[in-house]
Amino acid sequence: MTFSSSSAPPTFKPFNLALIQLGQIGPNKADNLKHARDIILKAAAGQGVAGTKPDLIVLPECFNSPYGHVHFPVYAETIGYTPDHQFDVTKCESESVKMLSSVAQEAGVWLLGGSIPERDITDDKIYNTCTVYSPKGDLVATHRKIHLFDIDIPGKITFKESETLTGGTTMNYFDTEFARIGLGICYDVRFPELAMTAARKGCQVVIYPGAFNMTTGPLHWELLQRARAVDNQIYFSMCSPARDTTAGYHAWGHSMVVDPMAVVIAEAGHEEEIVYARIDPATFHSARAGIPVTTQRRFDVYPDVSKGL
Ligand SMILES: O=C(O)CCC(=O)C(=O)O
């Protein structure tokens, strides 16, 4: 769903979140999908916070293929859904979408299915796309990475997603019975307007699948998430793949959940791990009451980025 037609957000209720810092992402897509499916079921059946089942499970960026611009065209799948086209699971050709839809239904959880390389049905362009499923297995939202990861830090890391990918053109969210949740993917976190717009449009929680690296990860992964959380007084979370030093891309890991006071309330190391967090609206409300920036903004001095969508 895009923000242009958004209505009032759902009442924010406590819920349990699980991030899967997925490992064993190799060249065989079928193996990647099987492993993801098994660990989603494990997360759903797991102890969670205080022994409770998670309400929402999150996978990392590019969970079904190795990460790199050369791999995207090879692994890309047609979802048959764009913001302008209705999704029909019976006509869906994507093995990844079919797996995610069925496992969300089997586990009875909301599932934010990381991201996959997606080939558009109409123009053949390739996107880095997040798909989200309800506990009934319905595909309720997609988000195509808006800001492509094109960086060049000499001697450290050069990456150019735009070699094979196209950037998305819409800002997206989904509503559950417990919160409105804003979407983005990895490099999108460096553009504060996106999370700011999500927060202004009623998202109490914003979650981005990501895969930072060994150069920018130690510097910016936590900093950016805490910044987005405290700027907007929202819960902010990113879910990474586990680090695999035999792969071409070495992910930083450290999947984390940050509360609206910028406290890191859950964090993984760099290996495969399931991280659970209790999302508590009391922290959201007390942050906004105690430091009332949400009502002190000076839109007479600077514009509101969320206006005019
Ligand atoms: O912004 C960064 O430093 C890393 C971004 C990234 O890895 C990505 O967009 O996939």
TrEMBL record:
GO MF annotation terms: omega-amidase activity
Alphabetical list of InterPro entries matching this protein: C-N_Hydrolase (IPR003010), C-N_Hydrolase_sf (IPR036526), Nit1/2_C-N_Hydrolase (IPR045254), UPF0012_CS (IPR001110)
UniProt KW keywords: Hydrolase
Pfam family, one: CN_hydrolase
One CC-aspect GO term: mitochondrion
PROSITE patterns membership: CN_HYDROLASE, UPF0012
GO biological process, any: oxaloacetate metabolic process
Positions of the CN hydrolase domain: 15-281
Family: Belongs to the carbon-nitrogen hydrolase superfamily. NIT1/NIT2 family.
Database matches in PANTHER family: NITRILASE-RELATED, OMEGA-AMIDASE NIT2
Protein name per its UniProtKB record: CN hydrolase domain-containing protein
Species in which this protein is naturally found: Jaapia argillacea MUCL 33604
